[in-house]
Amino acid sequence: MVDAFAAGAVTLAESSMHMPSIDDFLPPEILFQGTPFAINRIIFVRILAAIILMLVLGITAARAKLVPGRWQSAVEWIVNFTKTDIVYQVMGEARGKRYVPMITTVFLTLLVFNLCGEVPGMNIAASATITLPLVFAMWCFFQYWIAGIREKGLGHFLRDELFPKGVPWPIYILLSPIQLLELLVIRPFSLTIRLFANMVSGHLILALCLSATQYFLIDVVNKVMMPFGVVTFAAGMFMYLFEILVAALQAYIFAILTTAYINMSYPEID
């Protein structure tokens, strides 16, 4: 047994396991290299996922029936869930009707993009680089500002944001700059990082488990090391299922926070 472990240690020392890293999210360009339209694997996955999403929704709408089948019912359930349990639940029906298309787009797009990381052949979440979550976060806060300015006017909107009611005026010297920083940086940044970090970390952990499985079961020709491969394979399957849950949960959290932020820009109803 000692000799076997020693042989395994030698094998480990002589071989190397590919460790996933952040470089996996910066793959080389595969089309139009050296041009402003260069496409790498993540951008290609985004384009493909967007086309699939539009085709699914377009074909479902074109073939919609008065008595829906199972497929149409499933699509309508997702759309109605977004409208009823996200938008109307937070904003109310009267105020929320304006934002149903936007929040539905945010939720469905992020759901599909997040799930790309669990689809064999894609193997990378289309939202796993900082740019896409940032674009969606900026869209959210543009709508936040637009709604606030439309409902209150620019001056009143900024006054409510920078000078909250019920605070002694000397405190505003410290509070107002913090409020401005939160309005312009902290909220969009937190919305961006929450989605980005979850997609990156999940991919890295799953890739690490599967890389370790290949290493222990295939690359290392030593039966002593095989139990480690079984353990890492089981961990990888658990992470795969867990990442499906996380992908859906992060799309839901992003959509409901977007709705909540926009709703905060409206005047309080007495």
Structure description:
This protein is mostly helical. The chain contains 9 helices and 2 strands. It has helices at 2-14, 41-62, 70-91, 93-96, 100-115, 131-152, 154-162, 172-219, 226-264, and strands at residues 29-31, 39-40. It has a two-stranded antiparallel ribbon with strand order 1-2. Helix 5 (100-115) runs antiparallel to helix 9. The longest helix has 48 residues, at 172-219. The termini are far apart. Mean pLDDT is 83; it is low at 1-15. It is found in: Cell membrane; Membrane. InterPro entries: ATP_synth_F0_asu (IPR000568), ATP_synth_F0_asu_AS (IPR023011), ATP_synth_F0_asu_bact/mt (IPR045083), F0_ATP_A_sf (IPR035908). It is a multi-pass membrane protein.
Helix and strand arrangement:
Layout (H helix, E strand, L loop, with lengths): L1 H13 L14 E3 L7 E2 H22 L7 H22 L1 H4 L3 H16 L15 H22 L1 H9 L9 H48 L6 H39 L6
Antiparallel strand pairs: 1-2
Helix pairs in contact: 2-5, 3-5, 3-9, 5-9, 6-7, 6-8, 6-9, 8-9
Main traits of this protein?
270 residues; 9 helices; disordered N terminus; membrane
Termini separation: 76 Å
Number of strands: 2
Largest sheet: 2 strands, antiparallel
N-to-C series of helices and strands: HEEHHHHHHHH
- Fraction in helix: over 70%
Strand order within the widest beta sheet: 1-2
Give the overall silhouette.
globular
Computed structural class: mainly alpha
Mean pLDDT: 83
Low-confidence stretches: 1-15
Number of helices: 9
Strand percentage: under 5%
Please compute the radius of gyration using only Cα atoms. Answer: 24 Å
Protein name: ATP synthase subunit a
Subcellular location: Cell membrane; Membrane
Function: Key component of the proton channel; it plays a direct role in the translocation of protons across the membrane.
GO cellular component, one term: proton-transporting ATP synthase complex
